[in-house]
């Protein structure tokens, strides 16, 4: 069923973008720091490569944030400042729990490994709204602006 108005659709897309950006901050910190709690499925034990190796639900992402909040604040103080509301993730968790489905909202794929040369993207699966979202990060600097249009 389609949302009853454009506001609901736009709000859902904004929540997904927040979810992905939060995960991107987490991935960046995993690359910079050792000893983070609960990063199974992100950092390869064999070669140390940092890429998600499984899907992540909003609840799993929130747990990772809560377990590593001080380290995240060290690198991204504005994104994870004291009192910062993670309401979007909490709302997604609530919707997931109310759906009665098993892991209905997941970040299926994420890639920023070659962000200086290639696009950054994420794919989410939403079984509640029967939606797959493919999200691309926009241009962040002059180099990216040039390579995005070539």
**What is the count of β-strands?**
3
Number of helices in the DSSP assignment = 5
Shape: globular
* Fraction of helical residues: 40-55%
- Distance from N terminus to C terminus (CA atoms, Å) equals 39 Å
Strands of the widest sheet, in order across it, are 1-2-3
Residue-averaged pLDDT: 81
Tell me the structural class. Answer: alpha+beta
Question: Low-confidence spans: pLDDT under 50, at least 5 residues?
Answer: none
Radius of gyration: 16 Å
Order of helices and strands: HHHHEEEH
> Biggest sheet, open or closed, and with what strands and sense?
3 strands, antiparallel
Multimeric organization: single chain
Percentage of residues in strands: 5-15%
Task: Describe this structure as you would to a colleague.
This protein is an alpha+beta fold and 150 residues long. Helices cover 43% and strands 13% of the residues. The chain is built from five helices and three strands. A three-stranded antiparallel sheet has the order 1-2-3, covered by helices on one side. Strand 2 and strand 3 (131-136) form a beta hairpin.
């Amino acid at each position: 069923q389609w949302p009853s108005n454009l506001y609901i659709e736009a709000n859902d897309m904004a929540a997904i973008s927040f979810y992905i950006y939060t995960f991107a901050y987490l991935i960046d910190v995993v690359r910079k720091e050792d000893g983070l709690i609960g990063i199974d499925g992100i950092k390869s034990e064999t070669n140390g490569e940092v890429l998600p190796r499984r899907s992540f639900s909003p609840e799993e992402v929130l747990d990772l944030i809560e377990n590593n909040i001080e380290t995240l604040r060290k690198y991204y103080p504005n994104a994870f400042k004291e009192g910062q509301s993670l309401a979007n993730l909490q709302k997604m968790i609530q919707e997931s729990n109310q759906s009665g489905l098993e892991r209905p909202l997941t970040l299926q794929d994420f890639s920023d490994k070659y962000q200086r040369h290639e696009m950054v993207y994420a794919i989410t699966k939403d079984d509640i709204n029967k939606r797959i979202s493919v999200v691309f990060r926009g241009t962040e600097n002059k180099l990216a602006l040039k390579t995005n249009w070539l």
